[in-house]
Amino acid sequence: DAKTTQPTSMDCAEGRAANLPCNHSTISGNEYVYWYRQIHSQGPQYIIHGLKNNETNEMASLIITEDRKSSTLILPHATLRDTAVYYCIVRVLGGGFYGGSQGNLIFGKGTKLSVKP
Amino acid sequence: DVKVTQSSRYLVKRTGEKVFLECVQDMDHENMFWYRQDPGLGLRLIYFSYDVKMKEKGDIPEGYSVSREKKERFSLILESASTNQTSMYLCASIRDGLDGEQYFGPGTRLTVT
After folding, report:
1. Nearest chain B CA: its distance from A117 CA (Å)
2. Would you place residue A25 in the very low, low, confident or very high pLDDT band (cuts 50, 70, 90)?
Protein backbone atom coordinates (compact mmCIF):
# COMPACT_ATOMS: atom_id res chain seq x y z
CA ASP A 1 0.00 0.00 0.00
CA ALA A 2 1.10 3.54 -0.67
CA LYS A 3 2.17 5.69 2.23
CA THR A 4 0.20 8.69 3.39
CA THR A 5 1.22 11.81 5.26
CA GLN A 6 -1.08 13.81 7.48
CA PRO A 7 -0.59 16.69 9.90
CA THR A 8 -0.08 15.50 13.44
CA SER A 9 -2.84 17.61 14.93
CA MET A 10 -5.51 20.16 14.12
CA ASP A 11 -8.02 22.25 16.02
CA CYS A 12 -11.50 23.19 14.90
CA ALA A 13 -14.22 25.32 16.46
CA GLU A 14 -17.49 23.57 17.18
CA GLY A 15 -20.01 24.12 14.38
CA ARG A 16 -17.36 25.00 11.82
CA ALA A 17 -16.15 22.80 9.01
CA ALA A 18 -13.12 20.63 9.72
CA ASN A 19 -10.87 20.09 6.70
CA LEU A 20 -8.33 17.32 7.15
CA PRO A 21 -5.68 17.00 4.44
CA CYS A 22 -3.82 13.89 3.34
CA ASN A 23 -0.98 13.43 0.88
CA HIS A 24 -0.62 10.16 -1.00
CA SER A 25 1.70 11.05 -3.84
CA THR A 26 2.65 7.44 -4.67
CA ILE A 27 -0.89 6.12 -4.89
CA SER A 28 -1.47 3.50 -7.58
CA GLY A 29 -4.29 3.51 -10.08
CA ASN A 30 -6.14 0.67 -8.35
CA GLU A 31 -5.85 2.06 -4.83
CA TYR A 32 -8.75 3.64 -3.03
CA VAL A 33 -8.49 6.38 -0.43
CA TYR A 34 -10.14 5.45 2.87
CA TRP A 35 -10.75 7.50 5.96
CA TYR A 36 -11.25 6.07 9.41
CA ARG A 37 -11.36 7.69 12.79
CA GLN A 38 -10.69 6.43 16.27
CA ILE A 39 -12.21 7.95 19.34
CA HIS A 40 -10.19 7.38 22.48
CA SER A 41 -10.34 3.78 23.75
CA GLN A 42 -12.61 2.60 20.94
CA GLY A 43 -12.05 0.63 17.75
CA PRO A 44 -11.55 2.50 14.48
CA GLN A 45 -14.71 3.62 12.70
CA TYR A 46 -15.09 3.79 8.95
CA ILE A 47 -15.99 7.23 7.58
CA ILE A 48 -15.80 7.26 3.80
CA HIS A 49 -13.79 6.06 0.83
CA GLY A 50 -13.31 6.98 -2.82
CA LEU A 51 -11.29 6.28 -5.94
CA LYS A 52 -11.20 9.48 -7.96
CA ASN A 53 -14.56 11.17 -7.76
CA ASN A 54 -15.62 13.26 -4.80
CA GLU A 55 -17.80 11.38 -2.37
CA THR A 56 -20.30 12.42 0.26
CA ASN A 57 -22.21 10.50 2.90
CA GLU A 58 -24.04 11.33 6.10
CA MET A 59 -20.80 11.72 8.01
CA ALA A 60 -18.43 13.57 5.70
CA SER A 61 -17.28 14.57 2.24
CA LEU A 62 -14.13 13.38 0.52
CA ILE A 63 -12.43 15.57 -2.04
CA ILE A 64 -9.74 13.87 -4.14
CA THR A 65 -7.52 15.99 -6.39
CA GLU A 66 -7.53 15.27 -10.10
CA ASP A 67 -4.03 13.78 -9.99
CA ARG A 68 -5.12 11.70 -6.94
CA LYS A 69 -1.98 12.66 -5.05
CA SER A 70 -3.87 14.24 -2.20
CA SER A 71 -7.30 14.37 -0.64
CA THR A 72 -9.27 16.27 1.98
CA LEU A 73 -11.83 14.93 4.41
CA ILE A 74 -14.47 17.50 5.29
CA LEU A 75 -16.66 17.32 8.37
CA PRO A 76 -19.16 20.05 7.49
CA HIS A 77 -20.30 20.97 11.01
CA ALA A 78 -17.87 19.61 13.57
CA THR A 79 -19.16 18.70 17.01
CA LEU A 80 -17.32 17.89 20.22
CA ARG A 81 -18.00 14.21 19.54
CA ASP A 82 -15.90 14.45 16.38
CA THR A 83 -12.77 14.83 18.51
CA ALA A 84 -10.70 11.81 17.47
CA VAL A 85 -7.65 10.65 15.55
CA TYR A 86 -8.40 10.56 11.81
CA TYR A 87 -6.55 8.14 9.58
CA CYS A 88 -6.12 8.42 5.84
CA ILE A 89 -5.31 5.07 4.23
CA VAL A 90 -4.83 3.88 0.67
CA ARG A 91 -5.41 0.29 -0.27
CA VAL A 92 -6.13 -1.84 -3.29
CA LEU A 93 -9.61 -2.61 -4.49
CA GLY A 94 -11.28 -5.58 -2.86
CA GLY A 95 -11.37 -7.06 0.59
CA GLY A 96 -10.27 -10.50 -0.53
CA PHE A 97 -6.83 -11.96 -0.65
CA TYR A 98 -4.58 -12.54 -3.62
CA GLY A 99 -1.55 -14.20 -2.18
CA GLY A 100 -1.19 -11.62 0.54
CA SER A 101 -2.88 -9.59 3.22
CA GLN A 102 -4.42 -7.12 0.81
CA GLY A 103 -7.41 -6.73 3.06
CA ASN A 104 -5.08 -5.40 5.70
CA LEU A 105 -5.38 -1.73 6.47
CA ILE A 106 -2.10 0.00 7.18
CA PHE A 107 -2.78 2.78 9.63
CA GLY A 108 -0.27 5.60 9.94
CA LYS A 109 -0.16 8.02 12.83
CA GLY A 110 -3.18 10.02 11.71
CA THR A 111 -4.31 13.52 12.60
CA LYS A 112 -5.55 14.25 16.07
CA LEU A 113 -8.53 16.55 15.59
CA SER A 114 -9.62 18.54 18.61
CA VAL A 115 -13.01 20.21 18.33
CA LYS A 116 -13.27 23.06 20.78
CA PRO A 117 -16.42 24.79 22.09
CA ASP B 1 -26.82 -2.51 12.32
CA VAL B 2 -23.52 -4.20 11.65
CA LYS B 3 -21.61 -5.47 14.61
CA VAL B 4 -18.26 -6.85 15.62
CA THR B 5 -18.06 -7.78 19.25
CA GLN B 6 -15.12 -8.78 21.40
CA SER B 7 -15.39 -10.90 24.51
CA SER B 8 -13.78 -8.46 26.92
CA ARG B 9 -13.02 -4.73 27.00
CA TYR B 10 -10.37 -5.06 29.70
CA LEU B 11 -8.33 -8.07 30.72
CA VAL B 12 -5.50 -8.56 33.20
CA LYS B 13 -3.43 -11.74 33.02
CA ARG B 14 -0.24 -13.03 34.54
CA THR B 15 2.94 -13.87 32.66
CA GLY B 16 2.81 -17.42 31.34
CA GLU B 17 -0.98 -17.72 31.30
CA LYS B 18 -2.81 -18.88 28.22
CA VAL B 19 -5.13 -16.12 27.02
CA PHE B 20 -8.11 -16.37 24.69
CA LEU B 21 -9.55 -13.32 22.96
CA GLU B 22 -12.77 -13.93 21.11
CA CYS B 23 -14.31 -11.96 18.28
CA VAL B 24 -17.74 -12.45 16.76
CA GLN B 25 -19.27 -10.72 13.74
CA ASP B 26 -22.87 -10.95 12.65
CA MET B 27 -22.45 -9.76 9.07
CA ASP B 28 -21.59 -13.07 7.42
CA HIS B 29 -18.18 -11.67 6.43
CA GLU B 30 -15.61 -14.01 4.98
CA ASN B 31 -12.52 -12.13 6.14
CA MET B 32 -11.53 -11.45 9.72
CA PHE B 33 -8.44 -9.83 11.22
CA TRP B 34 -6.65 -9.46 14.51
CA TYR B 35 -4.55 -6.33 15.07
CA ARG B 36 -2.72 -4.93 18.01
CA GLN B 37 -2.40 -1.22 18.56
CA ASP B 38 0.45 0.36 20.48
CA PRO B 39 1.34 4.03 20.98
CA GLY B 40 3.60 5.30 18.23
CA LEU B 41 3.31 2.06 16.23
CA GLY B 42 -0.24 2.27 14.91
CA LEU B 43 -2.15 -0.90 14.07
CA ARG B 44 -0.14 -4.00 13.27
CA LEU B 45 -1.68 -7.10 11.76
CA ILE B 46 -1.19 -10.29 13.76
CA TYR B 47 -3.24 -12.85 11.82
CA PHE B 48 -6.10 -12.90 9.39
CA SER B 49 -8.53 -15.47 8.10
CA TYR B 50 -10.34 -15.55 4.76
CA ASP B 51 -12.52 -18.57 5.42
CA VAL B 52 -13.44 -21.10 8.06
CA LYS B 53 -10.38 -23.04 9.20
CA MET B 54 -8.14 -20.87 7.02
CA LYS B 55 -5.57 -18.55 8.51
CA GLU B 56 -2.61 -16.51 7.38
CA LYS B 57 0.15 -14.83 9.32
CA GLY B 58 0.23 -11.09 9.39
CA ASP B 59 3.20 -8.91 10.22
CA ILE B 60 3.73 -9.93 13.85
CA PRO B 61 2.41 -13.49 14.43
CA GLU B 62 5.09 -14.60 16.89
CA GLY B 63 3.63 -15.59 20.25
CA TYR B 64 0.09 -15.80 18.89
CA SER B 65 -2.14 -18.35 17.27
CA VAL B 66 -5.68 -18.18 15.96
CA SER B 67 -8.70 -20.35 15.46
CA ARG B 68 -11.64 -20.01 13.08
CA GLU B 69 -14.00 -22.95 13.49
CA LYS B 70 -17.11 -21.00 12.51
CA LYS B 71 -17.50 -18.19 10.00
CA GLU B 72 -18.68 -15.68 12.56
CA ARG B 73 -16.02 -16.34 15.19
CA PHE B 74 -12.28 -15.65 15.12
CA SER B 75 -10.24 -16.30 18.23
CA LEU B 76 -6.77 -15.01 19.11
CA ILE B 77 -4.72 -17.14 21.48
CA LEU B 78 -1.68 -16.10 23.44
CA GLU B 79 -0.09 -19.44 24.26
CA SER B 80 2.05 -18.08 27.10
CA ALA B 81 1.40 -14.42 27.79
CA SER B 82 4.36 -12.11 28.21
CA THR B 83 4.57 -8.51 29.36
CA ASN B 84 5.42 -7.31 25.84
CA GLN B 85 1.99 -8.51 24.74
CA THR B 86 0.35 -5.85 26.85
CA SER B 87 -1.59 -3.93 24.23
CA MET B 88 -4.94 -2.99 22.74
CA TYR B 89 -6.21 -5.84 20.57
CA LEU B 90 -8.64 -5.07 17.77
CA CYS B 91 -10.67 -7.48 15.71
CA ALA B 92 -12.09 -6.52 12.32
CA SER B 93 -14.03 -8.06 9.47
CA ILE B 94 -14.77 -7.29 5.83
CA ARG B 95 -16.86 -8.91 3.14
CA ASP B 96 -14.88 -10.67 0.42
CA GLY B 97 -14.56 -9.01 -2.96
CA LEU B 98 -15.89 -5.59 -2.03
CA ASP B 99 -14.06 -2.29 -1.79
CA GLY B 100 -16.03 -1.27 1.21
CA GLU B 101 -15.41 -0.68 4.82
CA GLN B 102 -13.64 -2.79 7.36
CA TYR B 103 -15.64 -3.05 10.57
CA PHE B 104 -13.82 -3.01 13.87
CA GLY B 105 -14.75 -4.29 17.27
CA PRO B 106 -14.45 -2.09 20.36
CA GLY B 107 -11.06 -3.53 21.31
CA THR B 108 -9.69 -5.46 24.27
CA ARG B 109 -7.11 -3.76 26.42
CA LEU B 110 -4.92 -6.58 27.70
CA THR B 111 -2.45 -6.06 30.53
CA VAL B 112 0.05 -8.82 31.28
CA THR B 113 1.72 -8.51 34.68
Report:
1. 27
2. very high
